Amino acid sequence: MASLSVFGTMGGTSSPEPVTFTGTGTVWLSGAPTFAMTGAGNSVGSIVVVDDTHCRAVVTCGSTNGPFVITDSTTSATCTFTIATARTYDLTDPSIYGHYVQIEGGLVLTSLSGTVCWNNAGVSYDTEIRFRATCAQIDFQQLISNGVNRLSIDRVDQDLGSSRFIPGLATFGWWCHSTGLDPTTEHEYICWWGGSNQGRGNPGVTQLRLLGGTGINTAPVAARPLVVAPGDSVGIGAGIIGGGYIDSDSTVCFWHDLGVISNYQVSNHSQGSQPISRRPVSLGGPTGTEAYTAGETAFIVATTPTPIVVYVLIGVVDVLGLYPTGQFGIDYRTMIEAYRAGLPAALIICPHIQPRGPTGTDLHKPDLYNAQIDAVVAALGDPRIVVSTVIYDVVKASGLVGYHPNYADSPGWAAAIKTELDGLLGPASGAMAKTEAHDSLAAISHSGSTGSMGRTEAHDTLVAAGRMTCSGTLARTEHHDRLVTRKRRHPRWFPGLARRPRIKTEDKERVS
Q: Is residue 287's pLDDT more than 80?
């Protein structure tokens, strides 16, 4: 039996609304569909058929609120579209952004196609806009460029098990980011624009529009400190395949997860196939130095707000390419010194390059390069430049095969990094309110804290298993809450909890 549904189920009065129709039992490629809509002044036009079951169109809304019926001419199937009063907020207005709407993840206010908007300048993955509101649908006026959308409600990601790819649009227009929301209760919303193998997902956002409910809460929303993350394909979700996700969906990668479970925003500057060092001429490399240090560090140090942490999870390409370790050490030091010169107050974390498997004895021997990282940090003698073995240790403990974490591994990586940052900076700058985060999320997710494992038990189990230590800077509740604030899966290395089947992925890093 034929059916019809529409994404972007609401529109504002007297405005055009771009929507996507999905049909079953339809043959739209050959059937040339048209859509009739009830209600004075309402119509559907600008129909673009994508395939037999998907087409894009524009709903022109009249001046009357209410639910209306849209009918597919080819099957007579119907769906409902609601017109409601819209509340619009100009995100380029400095009295709005930085106050009750926070622009995060490295978005910059600049001109794109002649329009002033927030965009990622093509260098940052997984950017976001955060606010508190009561609404039924969230729309943005934007110029979308090939990315994926995701929504977090009260620090819980939605629509997991799928990726919603957003195609590039030629002109600025209203686009439904999320619909079907609760119009009776205020929530914190984080609207994400992520990258994939299709592109970085530059949003180009100018305005926010809320439909239904009472709109945005204009009380100030606190800014989150910024962690900036230079890296390679490990950081962009290159291992994120299967499970319903499209290839390299950064909105289920560990840097995204850190931005959901913690009070840090993350500007993810990872680039696939990006080495630190120059490649030897014998392997087809240039005679001069690689452009990474000069080019990428310029973006890192210019990120706004000023980063408090630079987390340098990079080096896999150097290992895979068997770049000379001595030259790697020289170039690594040049890179770190450039970060320090541009960001004199930032904490710079220099992680060990993770092994390819749990034994740490893989063919390319990253420990030879890690010795260079240790030597560089020791030689610089800066207490705000530190070595980290956190991800290295998580990989060895988890049994990851290949350098790239999959969607099931990413929460464990994010949780480990959050614990590390809280230990180095103090939980006050990086933790959600402990009881609030736990209690609200336990009520709407499957944390299980009211059953077999309470807060203190979660902490004590981790400590007893040697997975964590209690140094005094982290409370028991934080250890437990950190694990339950994501409803999609528990970290793989937490003993005693059900584990999701691992999808082993081929190592996708390549030397370019």
A: no
